[in-house]
Structures are given as C-alpha cells and as structure tokens.
Amino acid sequence: MGLKAVFSPIGRVFRGAWWLLDGTRRVVLNLLFLIVLIALLWAIFSKGKTLQPQTTLVLDIQGDVVEQFSGSARDQAMAQLQGESRAQTRLRDLLAVLDAAAKDDKIVQVYMDLNHMGNASPATLHELRAALTRFKESKKPVVAFANSYDQRSYYLAAQANEVYVHPMGTVMIEGYGRYRNYYKDALDRVGISANVMRVGTYKNFAEPYFANAPSQASMEAESYLYDELWARYQLDVEQARKLDKGAIAKAIEELPQRLAAVNGDAAKLVLQEKLVDGLKTRDQVDQLLEQRGTKDDKQLRAIPMGAYAAQLPPKLPKADGQVGIIVAEGEIVDGQAAPGRIGGDSTSALIRQARQDDKIKAVVLRVNSPGGSAFASELVRRELELTRAVGKPVVVSMGGVAASGGYWISMSSDEVIADPSTITGSIGVVGMLPTGEKLMDKLSIHTGGYTTTWLAGAYDPRRALDPRLAAVVQSSIEHTYAEFTGRAASARKKSAAQIDAVGQGRVWTGSQALERGLVDKMGLLQDAVASAAKRANLGEDPSVKYVEAERSTLERLVSGLTETAAPTVRAEVLRALGGVPQLPAPLKEAQTDITWLAEQAQPDTKAGASRAPVKSIVHCLCLAP
Question: Of 287, 311, 335, which residue constitutes the final position of a domain?
Fold first, then answer.
C-alpha cells in the first residue's frame, strides 16, 4: 500500500473538519452581522422622537463608569458582542444628561436602575453624587432601584430621594481592602528568578514576584490608605441616609446576630437598618413612578439615558475660546495606544493638537492612571510643559487613580486638583529582568556562545543575570527616581529631600496628598474646568471641547451603535452562543500577572520606546476600590 493510500483517508477527515469549522465560522459571523444590522436600524429609527411632557429619565448604568471608552469603536462593539469585555458608560455622558434634565421642564423625575452597574472609583462616584445633588435642587425626585446593591451602586443609590430593593434582595456593604496572589514559591519551583530592582521602600508594584506575602511597609501604606477611604465612604452614606455616625460599622460588626434576629431575611434587615425606604419589585416601582409621571401604551413614559443624550443640542463654541479636556486614562505605554490606555506618542499628539488649536485657550488633563512606562510618562509631561510655555494654562484633574506615572504626567501644570479619594503619589521606580536559568537546568537544556564584550547578550532570559548588568540597571533605576523626585520637587516648589520623604513609592489619598503638598486642592472635574477658564479669562461658563483622536465615518457609526444598542445585541448573541465561560477571578489575576512577567523578558521593539537596557517602570500596585 502506497503512502498516498495511507494518508488519503486522513486528508479527507481533515478537509471535512476544516469545511465544518469554516462553515460554522461563516454562520456565526453572518448571524452577528444580521443582529448588528437589525440593532443599527432599530437605533436609527428609534431616534428623533419628540420628548413628551411628564417624562421620566432612566439612568440604566451599563457596566463600568469610565472616563473614555476603551479601544477603537470597532473593538468596543465586537468585544461587547462576543462577551470579551464589560459594558461601559462614560462619566461625561451621565453628568451631561443629569445637568440637562435638571433644566428640562419635560423631565419630571430620574429613575436610577442600578442592576447592571459595574465598577466606579470613589472619585467617579463623588462626581455623580455632585451631579445628582444639582439635579435634586430642581425639586425633582430621584428614585433608585436594584434587585440587590453592591457597595458602589449603593453609594449612588444613597444619594436618591427614595431607595428601593427587591424583597429577596440585599445591600452588600463590605468595606475596603484586597488580597493578591504572591508567586515567589511558585517561581522558585519552576526555576524562574524575577530579578527586581527598585527604589522606594513602599514601591510594591513588583513585590508579588519576589515575596510570598505583603511586606510590612505595604501593609502599613495600604492600611493608612484604605482606612481613610472607608471612613469617607461611611460618612458620606450615613449623611445621605441620615443615619447615626458609626451605624454602618456597627451593623457589619453585629451582622450575624442582626440577621439571625430577622430569620435570615436580608431585605428585611436592610429596611430595618434604614438603608432602603421600601421593599418593592420592579413593577411596583414602575407603578410608583407612574403616579408622578404618566403612561404611554400602558407603560411608564420614559426615555433612556442614551436616547436623551442623543437629542441634546451640541454646545456651540464661544468666540472667546474653549477649554480643551484631554483624558489620560489607563496604563501608560510607549508609542501609540487606543483609548483606554495612555500612549507616549498618541497622548502627546493630542496635547500638541490642543496647543496648536487657536480656539483652545486652556487645557485640562483628566488623569485616571496607575502609571506605566517612565519614558512615555516623560513624553506626556514634556508636551504639557511646552503647552504652558506658549501661554496656555494647564490644570490637572485627578480621577480615581493618579499614581506613579499618573503623578509624573501631572507635574507640569499650573494647578493640580484631586478628589479626596483619589489614589495618588507612589513616587518610585521599578525594573525587572526575569531569568529562567534554573528552569533550563531542570529541562537539561544548556546555552553557550561567543560575544565580543560582556554586555553583548548580557541579558538572556535563559542565563543567570550578570551582576554587572544588575548594577547598571540599578544605577539607571536610581537615576530615574532622582529625575522623578527632582521634577516633583520643582513642580511642588519643595526640596528633593521633602519629596523623597513623602515618596519612596508610598500611595496617598487625595486629602492625604493635599496635607503633604503633593496636590493644590480638592475638587471635581468642573472645578478644574472653572480654574482653567479663569486662568485663560474665558468667563464663568466656558465652552468645553474633548480633544480626542479623529475617527472615521465607519468608526463613528459603529460607536453610535455600541453606545445605544450594544447591551441588547450582546445579550442576544450570548443567548445564541450559550454564554461565554469566564475564568475565576483569582486564576484570571494569576494569568494576567504571569503574562506580564513573561513580557518583561522580551526586548522592547515598539516604535517610540526608550531602547534602554531595561524598562523603567513607574507603575503603582494600586486600584481604585
């Protein structure tokens, strides 16, 4: 029997399998396209309806509340449709609709449906609290409902005039803090050395790779940070709900006894504790809202947030100029980056665009970043310095996190305004050169070769780290730290020693940073805009323009679809595909951490990178709780 006869049946099997796989792929893609097309037509034809009197504005916050959508418009749409990313709602859209609705006679009330709300930093929640307060000054009620509330969504609900939860629901207030994975023993077991160089006693960004538990310094810094954030959360909620001071902490401490006293009925307990005003199902809440609004076709006359935002008239720029807002959100990376990350080149280009735009008279940099590349951070800071040099004021508004590299890019400004709960500081530097020489030994694999100098091939992940290279990298890291502290000292009008005393990689809340002179004052984004306008003599109600990368017509079309119809479409797609499996959170964290470690062993060939022997990382191991 010839070879052809032997392999022919195998070939037919593979061709058949490929035909089946390719056919399935086409069917799924066509199904996705059809659903997107239907949703697009629905989105187009559902717009343009005249707003009727006695209308209820529905704030159905979908997913995480962010400063800007992550990725390109196409990436956002496909990721949501395929279930690969959480839904997102922009903070600016929420603020705009609340402020507009407060002045709109046709809007009689706001209904916050918080069932689908995801992450939101304390600073973001404070922005929304202020907007809800402005709305309530119009004497229109705000009603909040959810089947159950988590800590973030309840903070927002507590600002409403009335708060309702499902009779089988609850309010989950836990406090702040977190646990992390630590990998030293695991890395030792497989034969990998992290080789971490750092400057800063509290700089714990790379700590999980060379330790099995948080250091005493990390525990000290995190307890100081989280205790402050937790105290502020309790105070805000207790004031909003008119509870006694310390009521929340006491209820948590006595939770087992209190829950047992109501026979385990969590909804009854939160009602008893006055965290909610009543236990209602969704239809009962609708009936309540109908009493204050009106019905259309036997249902509440209401308009979703997206549809209301779409019909708001655009604000025309004033003759005296505009304040340009540039969003710097996400990790700081070298080169170009899509929205949701800060690219050294791409974000610098946006700042140049604002500087060269004659209509923009002042710039507000809205920072929400834990940092990243020191080189990319310096590129962004330098562009802000040049913007100030041409006479355009720069004001920094710190969001949930503006730490490490996020603080670095904030240093060249006329004023830094932070939220009391902003996580900031973390002035410190880390470098890492992971090697796997012990792993190679376990695999009985050896390396060898010739180089003209010790530096050629000095860093090879397969070989032990040369002590001379370690010394070179440590010197480079120390120099970067000196640059960081020196620039911070110049910006804050302090000595390098004073900055070093509050630096060393330690993180602070915004209010703690104010006490230490790292920021100028507490405030919201609108306070930063007002300050920038005043510095540029633009009056009290300036025109505002978000400076963002230009999008193609197709991207704008896809973006509009994503913002209006993606949650509905995604739900249909997931039902059709039977859902998308997700890794448990701890395993997902481990996957991310180990992937990041592996990336450090790769040479940085990205255009715009610093080409240094090791990347100087000004990143904070901190997240907004």
Answer: 311
Q: Is residue 19 part of a domain?
A: no
Segment 386-406 mean pLDDT: 97
∠ CA 426-429-435, nearest 5°, is 130
Chain segment 480-497, per-residue pLDDT in tens: 999 999 999 999 999 999
Q: Which of 203, 280, 392, 494 is catalytic?
A: 203
Indicate the Cα dihedral angle 579, 583, 584, 586, nearest 10°.
-160
- Residue 203 annotated in active site: yes
β-bridge mates for residue 369, sequence order: 402
Residues contacting residue 506 through CB under 8 Å, at least 6 positions apart? 200, 201, 202, 221, 425, 426, 427, 428
Indicate whether 545 and 473 sit together in one domain: yes
- State the residue for tokens 């009936």: 287
* Per annotation, catalytic residue among 404, 412, 413, 421: 404
How confident is the prediction for the chain on average, in pLDDT? 86
Same-domain pairing of 347 and 285: no
pTM, full prediction: 0.84
In the three-class reduction of DSSP (H, G, I as helix; E, B as strand; rest coil), residue 601 is classed as coil
Structural domain containing residue 86: 55-171+276-311
How many domains does the structure of the chain reveal?
A: 2
| Distance separating alpha carbons of residues 317 and 325, to the nearest angstrom | 14
Determine the pLDDT at residue 616: 78
Two tokens at 263? 């026979």
- Which segments of 201-315 are extended strands (E)? 278-279, 295-296, 299-300, 302-304
Q: What is the pLDDT of residues 239-288, one digit of tens each?
A: 999 999 999 999 999 999 999 999 999 999 999 999 999 999 999 999 99
Choose one of 311, 333, 358: the last residue of a domain: 311
Label residue 50 by pLDDT band (50, 70, 90).
confident
Tokens of 430: 């880390």
Buried b / exposed e along 498-527 (16+ C-beta atoms within 10 A)? bbbebbbbbbbbbbbbbebebbbebbbbbb
What span, in angstroms and rounded, lies between the C-alpha atoms of 153 and 172? 10
Considering the domain boundaries, does residue 231 fall inside one?
A: no
In 253-407, DSSP assigns E strands to 278-279, 295-296, 299-300, 302-304, 322-329, 332-333, 342-343, 360-369, 371-373, 394-403
Question: Tell me, what's the pLDDT at 121?
Answer: 95
184 annotated active-site: no
Q: Does residue 277 contact residue 163 with C-beta atoms inside 8 Å? A: yes
Give the pLDDT band of residue 81 (cuts 50, 70, 90).
Answer: low
